[in-house]
Structure of D-inositol 3-phosphate glycosyltransferase:
Amino acid sequence: MTRAVQRMRVLVVAPSRYPLRQPHAGGLEATVWDRVRWLRDRGHEVTLCAAEGSDFLDDSPAFALPAPAWTRVEDASDTFYPEGYARATDAAHEVLLDRLRSGRHDFDVIDNHSLHPAPIRWSRDADIPVVTTLHTPPLEPMLEAAEYARGSAHRFVAVSQATARAWSVEGVDAFVFPNGIDTDRWTRGPGGSRWVWSGRIVPEKAPHLAIEAARTAGAEIVVAGRIGDVDYFQQEVAPRLGGPARYVGALHQGDLCRLVGSSAVALVTPMWEEPFGLVIAEALATGTPVAAFDIGGVAEVLAGMPGTAAVTVGDVTALAHAALELARQGEREPLTRVWTRRAAVREHALSRRYRDVERVLTHTALRSREQRMPAVSW
């Protein structure tokens, strides 16, 4: 284990919609799961605040947040909450605030990834420095909390330049620290003939367009991921399955790595302002080339990477042609997978990304501590 330069007591706050455990609900949950592991490996004392059922909560059950309880599976959604859940989470955050106020010296800094506004306000309400990572386009409750926390020991970081610009327009400035992936877990694969799509199955990720692109090119495609919108899946994805298009569900990281790494090309099809696109970095780390819609932070993740192509958002024909060319290039030049993997490790490895984050957490904690120290009079 590599020891940190200065050991910190960190409270990592995760989004509460889904537990942090495999198979990961999405890129956000995977990122925070990796963050906890990495900070602990660096020698920091890390407490996790996350949804019930999360990994890493055994030592801190008092920081478990309620998870949504859906009456019917088909009602589960990445967009809406079941009735009463908002009140339950608000109440849970109030309880946590009281705990933080009474034991504020238990933590040096809060590493906040929540989409709930409360942890942003804790920098003022609990007098604990907070670093909030912006993983989404601007959300009104978080904007209001940011205004409330102005002048306190709070700092924002964003996962891409595109995300930082979107929040800056709303008056919130952020440093840019892109997400990283564990390139010891995301290993190079042998490639193959089929195409692959992975991620949350929701309208804004548009896997149905990936299936259409594969059909246009006459390619087999495998779709993997958690269904985050049942109606969308039943209306747009399920009717396109069968024959050369197959759905394999949500996979644990190791199984997903093997699937992506044994594919000819990965398709990434966001139809919203994609904040980052972790699946791009994951695929590239396996050596699998990526064809993607160019929107949000996608171009930043692809920048300088061999084996990639970006096309106009929603242009299925262009996506099909780009993916077909990448797959053919892989057949002609087998070493392309080696070069792609090396570039992904160089640009997207956790060790590269998180050392910067560690410095921000340390600096925020130390600066807040210095500001609270009484002046010495002689």
